[in-house]
Predict the structure of Sensory transduction protein RegX3.
Amino acid sequence: MRVLVVEDDDRVARGLLTALRHAGYEVHRVATAADALRAAPADVVLLDLGLPDGDGLDVLRELRHRPGTAVITVTARGEERERVLGLRAGADDYVVKPFGTSELLARIEAVLRRTRAHRAEPESEAPVEVGPLHILTSTRVVTLAGEPLSLTRKEFDLLALLATRRGEVVSRDFIVDQVWQAHWEAPSRTLDTHIAALRGKLGDRVKIETVRGVGYRLAT
Ligand code: CA
């Protein structure tokens, strides 16, 4: 994790660098707004809003365009207006000088958790894979050996359920409950019909095994 410290006060900067390096961060420090904008991308920017060559808020607005960079503003006690403007301009958090090392580290960890969770969203889903079968539940796309498989809505739900529990026996009751929703008395034959249809579409490459009297298992 890279932290960029934007701080013109050498004494404050030294303390920050020591504490952050001690906590295991890769830390770089710049002392001006111009250098802050030129610096290599960081996961977290600790941004002093009182900089000698310009408004820290302008730096903040510029950094907001860089996805994956969290910004924590640093202001002096009494600079409430700057703090508020910073939050309005998109700062993820702020600390007020003088602040303790443990408070700062806790805030850095918190913003990193938030930005990572946020960033992970679009790409978080790994396909469910069972041999040549790939299932993306968010888009409901299924491929078998690279070829798209056309499934009905219920066939998809059924296959996705078995695939996420591949290798396990999934009971008929549980399947009916999950795929046809609870409380609906799905006739047993409905499930059998869907299993038969899925088997037809999957062919020999992916096997849905019947576990007599219990349910079904997607063989791995
Ligand atoms: Ca300053």
Observations:
- The pocket of calcium ion is lined by residues 8-9, 48, 50-51 (CB under 6 Å).
- The chain has two domains: 2-119, 128-218.
